[in-house]
Amino acid sequence: MPRIAVIAGDGIGPDVTREAVKVLRCVTRGSGTELDLVEWPHGADHYLATGTTITDAEVTELSDQYDAILLGALGDPRVIRNEHARDILLGLRFRLDLFINLRPVRLLDPRLTPLKDKAESDVDFIIFRENTEGVYVGMGGTFKQGTPDEVAVQEDVNTRKGVERIIRAAFEHARVAGLERVAMADKANAMEHAGGLWRRVFREVAAEFPEIESEALYVDMLAMDLIRRPERYRVIVTGNLFGDILSDLGSQLAGGLGLAPSANIHPGRTSLFEPVHGSAPDLVGTGQANPLAAILTSALMLRHLGYAGEAERIEAAVRSAVQAGATTPDLGGSLSTAEAGDEICRYLEQMKN
Ligand SMILES: NC(=O)c1ccc[n+]([C@@H]2O[C@H](COP(=O)([O-])OP(=O)(O)OC[C@H]3O[C@@H](n4cnc5c(N)ncnc54)[C@H](O)[C@@H]3O)[C@@H](O)[C@H]2O)c1
């Protein structure tokens, strides 16, 4: 039985995670599938009460004794610079070596995209963002800080191993899913050293997948093209910074943060699943947080754990609810967070009959 650590976290994290857990129980009820869901208290309250974010022993426990982590959101205005969130989130990403940040972008209803004349099938791509390197490793420094001569250096770290494994993961996904093309985004014209490595490795790995078309693009070109003709794209692979920006762009093409799931994966190891949105302090206590991103995230987790049927049923239920307008106010509906979760369970029950 898969063992899953549930870290509801801060702000709206507990609200949306409660619904995701509710849906996990609905989809597995009577199906023979069992999940061991274990609640973990980590977040701002825990940090403020105990002074610890997450200990080395706890990270080891997650790594050795759990199959997945389902996380709500982290971020609390009471914690200076959100150091607990950085420690837990970035700590888990780096220490569990979760090198794939997976961001599916799928339009569930044409009314939800700001693009003109686009159908569901036109906005349906997945971004493989490198998650452990790039400019986010924190290498660099400042010199003469606070003076007119101040210098700030932020290094962009790209290793052969890091670039190769994320590119290979994207091609492997395309092969398994039967998708015809993988696009890679870099900025090789202005950042020749990193771009040179990415392009060389991309060509080499692409040669191992002769049935899949490959295309290397400058990231600014791709950003324009995703707005102009998103239907050209099915799989995109890119570095940490560009992936961060492209996936936020992508989330808006498919209805916004309320519907955007993500996964942080190292195949074969404990992986972390979280909605893209944050803790939304403005929504705390309103009962209006949209739980669908967290629910779609739980579907990603189930698929990763080998329960593709359950994942598909959750995704179909979410699509039905969205198309029927049975949503929270951010998507134009009038349901509360809990009612939106109930609605997904209702569709899941209908599918069983
Ligand atoms: N992975 C994470 O845990 C994560 C990601 C982003 C931000 N954060 C943290 O969250 C806090 C708030 O950050 P922010 O305001 O920049 O981003 P946010 O994603 O929390 O909110 C941005 C906007 O989107 C709306 N929104 C977000 N989630 C929603 C949902 N489920 N349903 C309906 N509307 C939703 C919010 O109301 C807000 O207007 C900060 O402390 C930040 O550091 C955490």
CATH architecture of the largest domain: 3-Layer(aba) Sandwich
> Helicity, in percent?
40-55%
CATH homologous superfamily of the largest domain? Isopropylmalate Dehydrogenase
Structural class: alpha/beta
Instruction: Please write the CATH class name of the largest domain.
Output: Alpha Beta
H/E series: EHEHHEHEEEEHEHEHEHEEHHH
Give the strand tally.
Answer: 12
Q: Could you say which overall geometry the principal axes of the C-alpha atoms support?
A: globular
Approximate strand percentage: 15-25%
Bound ligands: nicotinamide-adenine-dinucleotide
Mean pLDDT: 96
Q: What name does CATH use for the topology of the largest domain? A: Isopropylmalate Dehydrogenase
Report on this structure.
The mean pLDDT is 96. The protein is globular, with a radius of gyration of 20 Å. It starts with a strand and ends with a helix. It is an alpha/beta fold and 353 residues long. It is 42% helix and 19% strand. It has helices spanning 13-28, 44-50, 56-65, 83-95, 160-177, 192-207, 219-228, 240-253, 292-304, 308-323, 337-352; strands at 3-9, 36-40, 68-73, 100-106, 124-130, 140-143, 151-154, 181-186, 213-218, 235-238, 261-265, 271-275. The chain contains eleven helices and twelve strands. The protein has two domains: 1-102 and 261-353, Isopropylmalate Dehydrogenase, CATH 3.40.718; 128-224, Nucleotidyltransferase, domain 5 (2-Layer Sandwich), CATH 3.30.420. The structure holds nicotinamide-adenine-dinucleotide. Nicotinamide-adenine-dinucleotide (NAD) is lined by residues 12, 16, 73-75, 82, 85, 89, 257-258, 274, 277-283, 289-290, 293, 330.
